[in-house]
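Slide 14.
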Amino acid sequence: MDTNTPAGPTDIRPFRIDIPESDLDDLRQRLERTRWPDELPGVGWDYGVPRDYLRELAGYWLRAYDWRAAEARLNAWPQFRTEIDGATVHFAHLRSPEPAATPLLMTHGWPGSFAEFLDVAGPLTDPRAHGGDPADAFHLILPSIPGFGFSGPTRETGWEFKRTAAALAELMRSLGHERYGVQGGDWGAAISRELGRIRPENVIGVHLNLLPGSSATAEPTEEELAALSPAERERTLASWERGRRWARDEQGYADIQSTRPQTLSYALTDSPVGQLAWIAEKFRQWTDSGERPEDAVDRDHLLTNVMLYWLTGTAGSSARIYYERAHAGYWGEPPEPSVTPTALAVFPHDNFVPLRHIADRTNTIVRWTEFDRGGHFAAMEEPELLVGDVRAFFRELREDAAR
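Slide 15: predicted structure.
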């Protein structure tokens, strides 16, 4: 069987989030019994999440955060679960009131979730109600990647991003969306790009806020730099330098998840503060924040994201996508070319500096927008900027098609 065409969904079932109160009681008890480690004085965030900050955040989680309010907000979205290629796939399906709306599949990454899109869903599905043009409306499909959140743990090996893209293509077919757009960042960017590559006859356009394989991975030579414009030379050197800092200071989480996700899972599945620290650090390091993640992302929104890992016990299974990618046959090879029109929204505090001359080698880039603020979690940090760029990209594609 063609590996890009998995078996279709056997059944699409309505799904509603309904966490037992006993699970919330267990969380409270574990938070109250947290065993706190020592800490070196004066090191700030250099060694990881500062203890005083995490104690305060965990205390807020215990005493002030309202899961039931978050649950009700998420349950306002029609949600479903189905089985594709042996995996459970959970998704929200938000139909626009505009009948001519464009279907748009938006996919999260790690350590994100489908809740990343809470602040962009309304403006994208109903622009008329948010001061926009109704012609820019979208029907949204928001999946949880297999292994993440309410998709639950995967039950077999091999669920890397290419298999996920094929499964989501089958999901869109089963929902009756023959022509649609895709959008994503982090793993959602890899999945969205791959979906556009393997289904150019179905995918109208690919909008990304991160482009895998578009940064400088080796020190540029003098010959390479000489062929570039002065601005692109400067950007290339900045990309290389940021990559060096990443390898020294930030890469550890990915190395662990790419090699021993099962070992890590015991700690994160047993300790809510461990799970909180593992995720909150990334929301501080990868965002356009100051001293705390909350400088960039709403605190309750951050905790809702953490809850979707904790309550579903998917810390380990979500990490496995790193292992599967690192052990796939294509690992280390350059990206395969995509002919589907692609847009990149560049947020300056994301993890890597993308380079246009590299991106153009294997992507059909038709829109490249650089913003002056924002980071890795664009839908949570800068929802208005992301919404505006998504609307503009697909509007351009509609206008081009009409000519």
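Speaker note: Strands lie at 12-15, 79-84, 87-94, 102-107, 138-144, 180-184, 203-208, 341-346, 364-370.
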